[in-house]
Amino acid sequence: MSVSGLALTAFLLFHGGMNLTLVFSEEAYNTICRLLGANWYALVGSMVIGFLILVHFSFAMLLGHKNAIARGIRVSMK
Fold this sequence. Notes:
The chain is mostly helical. The protein contains 3 helices and no strands. The protein is elongated.
């Protein structure tokens, strides 16, 4: 879960940094948009981010379930 969380945090920082360039230079922002528009690596990156979100959510559910069992809390998986 920590690895997927770290990767998602890195994505947010990267995305935020790209958007921050708009404050300083419209030309630089447009260059970034052209580079990351609809290229194959941007599409693959979007799929990877979606996969990481699913992995992160799944691990959160699994760890929450294991934590409840370890604490002796009755857990029903209906």
